[in-house]
Amino acid sequence: MSTSISGLDLARAFYHEAVRPVLAKHHPRLPHSAALLGSGSEALGFDDAVSRDHNWGPRLQLFLSAPDHARSSASLAQSLRRHLPYQFRGYATNWSAPKHEKDDQGTQLLAPIASGEVNHRVETLTIDSFMRAHFGLGSDCKLRAADWLSIPQQKLLTFTSGAVFHDALGLESIRQRFAFYPRDVWLYLLACGWQRIAQDEHLAPRAGAVGDELGSRIIAGRLARSIVLLCFLMERAYAPYPKWLGSAFRQLDCANELAPILEAVQLAGDYRERERHLCAVWQILNRLHNNLGLTQPIAPSVQEFHGRGFMVGSAWRYTQALLDCIAGGELQKIAARSLIGGIDQFSDNTDLREAVHLRGAIADLYAG
Length: 368
Known about the structure:
By secondary structure, the chain is an alpha+beta fold. The chain has helices at 7-26, 66-83, 127-134, 145-150, 153-160, 171-177, 183-200, 203-209, 213-234, 245-249, 255-267, 271-292, 316-323, 329-337, 343-346, 350-354, 359-364, and strands at residues 33-36, 60-63, 87-88, 91-92, 122-125, 163-167, 303-304, 311-312. It is elongated and about 75 Å long.
């Protein structure tokens, strides 16, 4: 058993060395795409030894056309059950039945066997059914701005990362449609990211000034999250959900400079020290914004907040400058109604962000 192989590398080898030979022998004329996308830390490349304790092992998705899925998915699944090896690279290919207790969420474990049929995890599905389950949108849907804003970045990231091992159905071209936000959506999200900072930047020192160090730390934590999410947008990258947010942030170009300062913000002994670190962040963010060339250069400015003795970066200046650059009427109307931003900017509630059946209702928030 390899203890160092990544989940993606395992899935790729499993397809080429175990699954594809079964297809070639028993379903030789079946066009398909093969991939590992969606849920699971391995789709993001963050899986480690701990990840192997559940839902990790030889698995992947086989995508068929709708007619082929209707005709062949059952026989294909049966062929795999009968002809897959019992082990691959030292890992069992047989899985336990999924549990559905409230705290298990369908957890499956590797369950070695020596005879009988393999309860494998080679899912057979269509691209459209996968996307409807993952996004709440069909594969041929023309995305509105409101649709983009209602999809969590984690969902976009796990669809566009992962890996495609074989592609006879054009899965990769569909993934490219979701590679990153259209320009006006991007501008709106950047503006709303700055808006979140503008709403909080003076509150961390304000709370500290009245002796509420706990409150100041909590607000500084909110600011750190807003800053990190803004940095992902600046570098045109989707942000993952909280478990991997810091790990993915450290892969951004700006992290070498910003990560130590944001850690110092979290660890500061009092609000004045925290404020000094945040002032350094405002200077860096100013440079990063200007380097994008989206707006006219904005002068670096750390100034006192309305004579109250609290130093801020005047984040509202970036919000307005970015909104002025939006060209399309759809986003202009959304921005005029509200600056709530995308779902990740106005909510960190996991149940809401995972509720695919609510995506349409979330999109309706932008309709006025």
